[in-house]
Amino acid sequence: MTGLPDLSTTRVRRTPTTLADGRDFFYYDDSEPYVSGEQTRRLDDPRPLPDRFAPIEGPDGVTQPVTGPQMRYDVLTGEWVPMAAHRMNRTFLPGPDTNPLAPAKPGAEYTDGEIPATDYDVVVFENRFPSLMRVPGEPDETTHLDGNDLYPVRPAVGRCEVICFSPDAGASLSSVTPTRMRTIVEAWADRTAALHAIDGVQQVYCFENRGAEIGVTLHHPHGQIYAYPFLTPKTQTMLHQAVAHRQRTGRNLLKDVLEGELASGRRIVGESEHWVAYVPAAARWPVEVHVAPRRDVPDLPATTDAERTDFAGLYLNLLRRLDQFFVDADGTPMPLPYISGWHQAPVVHGRDDLRLHLQLFSIRRAPGKLKYLAGSESGMGAWISDTTPEKIADRLKEIA
Amino acid sequence: MTGLPDLSTTRVRRTPTTLADGRDFFYYDDSEPYVSGEQTRRLDDPRPLPDRFAPIEGPDGVTQPVTGPQMRYDVLTGEWVPMAAHRMNRTFLPGPDTNPLAPAKPGAEYTDGEIPATDYDVVVFENRFPSLMRVPGEPDETTHLDGNDLYPVRPAVGRCEVICFSPDAGASLSSVTPTRMRTIVEAWADRTAALHAIDGVQQVYCFENRGAEIGVTLHHPHGQIYAYPFLTPKTQTMLHQAVAHRQRTGRNLLKDVLEGELASGRRIVGESEHWVAYVPAAARWPVEVHVAPRRDVPDLPATTDAERTDFAGLYLNLLRRLDQFFVDADGTPMPLPYISGWHQAPVVHGRDDLRLHLQLFSIRRAPGKLKYLAGSESGMGAWISDTTPEKIADRLKEIA
Q: Where is the active site (chains A, B) (predicted)?
């Protein structure tokens, strides 16, 4: 909890605390009287959760230390794959009808959700079931499966955090106020800076999965923040392309792409003082939009106060239009299932070559139809689009 | 139709013909009396289909030449993305209750499916809606979208073919006889060799999508064959890894992986004289099996008659076990939704570094649960597994 980034220049109050099992938990409040004020709300977690890292008793009655998630190196692709083989204390599970992201009920002594306080603006906390986590005392060493050099194995250190966008389970990110969206941007930037400082973290990804069609079972508006202990394949690929472009032209690839979109104008779907939203020229998803800052910026912590405020307005406008992209047979808008996430420069590599941008995409290709990632996409990594970027842009432009 | 591969050493009779709109169509028959025999069955296509490549009248009444599918270069990833912007003659569509892969009804003068004959063993034909196709006369030139060097565009030349595994709409690949499976392997090998010879084709992928869960709407047992005009991202990645391994060790990566699996034995789920089936050490899907030949073989055309026959038995056994991998609450086996495809060496590149193997995987992670490719996988290309390769192997080993 030490060494948190400085928030003194922002309009947000960050209140760090800890859940009963030791997980970090942060309130981000944007207006007085602060809902996480210690005078009026309970901040401590009253649940009888065991320490996550306390030794646990196995089926044989023998007590053993907990182990963290591991990851294996896929020698055929050069990619690390975290795997859910770890053993953790998981004695507490919210009931099936419980929304673990809802605020605690006022007056109740006990909460079966994850939020101790009875109200909040925005909160961030460590995921109860992390795929990436450092277990204290576990050595961060590479070993080899079967003793074979081809099969390296390492602890999947890093972090998986959850961010709740609203205390209202029926809300969506598109329905929050500009001030609240601004607070969410602040939380993303703050957590990115803090996670960048964790030993072993190479890259931070703030993203939202929205909609049952992509497997979301918890409809309370929330996102996730992953701090990876490796460069993700997508980032490696983009870095490779950006470095090659710089070596060939002396210029920044992502800046040139933005300038190309601005010069063409054909696929621009939103502009503000500091940001540009466009459908990329080779969009591969049925709906895809990128949002990039006009200024060269490697990541969210490097954005200015004005850029954050400006983004909030542009993004809300974009999300509201996306929820009208498809309409059903009666002409009623169908909220879009989507994945939206921030491509940020890694902690060390590519700080001058990669440039902050948000990528939002959907697998819905028609009111009743999804794009499935079948043989070509999942087997060979070769995407085939059923539409064109210009058609996507035209539809977004016609929605007020 | 000229220059077809030599089939004289096989047990299969290939009968090439042409559909009414000019698409190539091949019967592969494995026993006399051949069901595609011209004496007993109609081979011609009686449907009034227009020539696919005849000029078509636009909404403005002006007749224009058809255009083939185009693909755009995604400069952020270095990948080509075929896009469905082409205009083709598509006046004929089978009715919604029609199975276009069923044999024609005996005695009927007209068929509204794709198969003119009233019976078949295995057939292969060009897809009516190809994402990859060369339109005669269309120049295979690279141009640039918006005149911008960052946005290359090219015709998506190549081929998309359909392979029907059985005339029985209620069958599945796992239910065909070993002889029929052997014929299917023959058809895959024959089409791979033929497609490798097409100008512009760089790589051939024979695959099967099976199950509604991955978007299959046509349940007649069938697969697809794609001939790509580029190296797919997955193949490029594997080639990069294989070349690096050879430069470091002087050895073939895929051979070393197979030897590693054989030496360990921990994840072997099937062996025959010529083939080995194993769960890869870094399997990223909830169910994943690779099947590799014991001998160094770049692609299916290079396999021997004995290897093809041997594969048929091993693969049938594997498919039948996979359909028992998950059972419902009553203990009833649940047929597995899966994607299965052959990684083959490209036409030119990597013939000595890449090695034939089949990759079969499923998105089902529990009886009622699917693995969704959400933010980490679809946004960052970073897979996270909910299981371990050893658990997958143990389950397959316990199924007789």
A: 222
